From TrEMBL:
Organism: Dyella psychrodurans
Domain named PLD phosphodiesterase: residues: 170-197, 410-437
SUPFAM superfamilies, alphabetized: Phospholipase D/nuclease
InterPro entries reported in the protein's UniProt record: PLD-like_dom, PLipase_D/transphosphatidylase
Name the UniProt record assigns to this protein: Phospholipase D family protein
CDD domains: PLDc_ymdC_like_1, PLDc_ymdC_like_2
Pfam family, one: PLDc_2
Signal sequence, start to end: 1-21
Amino acid sequence: MRTDRWVVAFAFTIVCLFLQACSTLPPSTAKVETHHLPPAADTPSARYAHTEVDKHPHQSGFRLLTLSTNALLSRVALADHAAHSIDLQYYIFANDMTGHLMMQHLLAAADRGVRVRMLIDDDNFDDKDHLFEALNSHPNIEIRLFNPFRTRNPTLVSRAVQFMLEWRRLNRRMHNKAFIVDNNVAIIGGRNIGDPYFDAGSDTHFRDLDVVAIGPVVQQASDAFDAYWNCDAAYPLEQLKKTDDSGKRLAAARVILQKEVRKFAQSDYAQAVMDELPDGPTADKRGAWFWGDAEFVADQPEKIEADGDVPALRIGPRLKTMLDGAQHEILATTPYFIPGDAGTQHLVERAQSGVSIKILTNSLASTDETAAHAGYVHYRKALVEGGVQLYELKPTSGQSQPTTDIGKSSGISLHAKTIVVDDREVFIGSLNMDQRSKLLNTEMGVIVDSPGLARAISDFFHTATQPSNAYQVTVDPATHQLAWHAEENGKPVTYQTEPNASAKRRTEVTLLRQLPIDGLL
């Protein structure tokens, strides 16, 4: 009898979860369409930006954010200097220490009268303590969730049920990352908002790159933001979860955020931020800009609704044109590298035509996604045998690199997404070189014709691929098997199997390699 009762209880639970998962989303068309504000011209920051841009007609200016601490403080400084508007769009806006820091500064901007629009993908959205819900109740802050789940804060089981029922829709995410202030300056690149992206986490520390941008490319970024903000997949948070005590929650959120930010200010990390800040210009400090003709590129939000591959909706063809134009060298950095059969053949053909192709990705020991690594290993040997030079980042550091922040912390993982062609043309953005970025998620970035910016990103690449920081993958001519070359304690070493990877990770990859999942990675 006890077993029967458990069976009935389990079945009842599944039915409840099923009904919960099938609840209907409100129509997103009920939201009010809004658009970016004109570029500000009445603040010191705006006047400075316009003065710099006027010296370089039709070009945009860029600063590369390599240090994680500079990347964080640049966002804080821009929020603090905002006078009219802040538009931000992220795959992840974490509810953690650096997320709380950004919330507090966004709230302070809203209190000054700044309009804040926050578009966040719902895949990793976590509203513990109802902080986002409280912020959304501020008259100057609006939060929208992209492609949301049907229930708020679903349990693991409920989430799994929803995925099973709506796999095609929920498997497609907004991976874009942009932070735009007063329609005059933007931060674009690979970083989300969260501790691992700013070296503040206790586990994974992502090595990443962003650019601060001024000039015409910022207007293009604002136009792209509006397209996502007003699309059918963007749902106002209040339509998904309404409460009657939002005023009380906003007051409570102020107390929580003040406490968290005070704790942050007293942390060792905050002291390190202040110590490192003078080492390079942030978004609010005067300094040199890299100038060049620039194009903001973004997938169309309708990409998540498309049946099959619709090239007109994605940025891939534009990037392929950039790569196909290479005459001498391609340097590419990507945390997940799954080129597929056609991509592998194309890269090999380019390499055999005389173009030097060097690619930096994660090693099995450094990756945060073993499934992606399992997809990568299908193509690795063919790429190396075809003349493509592969480098895999080590998971731990040698010496600290003050200008690149490569290898500073234990548990590091590559997260930057960049391409440099012929020491001149650059792409930096959110797109990984894998099938998920190509066909499932939406992506964005900037393409810039600037030898100076290209040199800065190339310096990052060359430091990251030094034998003390990365393994170079080759094929042993005697055994025809892969080999990994690096330096340990200043001495050259060669590994015959994937170095420093745990038995658990090796087993995971072995099992995952047997599954036909490349198109999902």
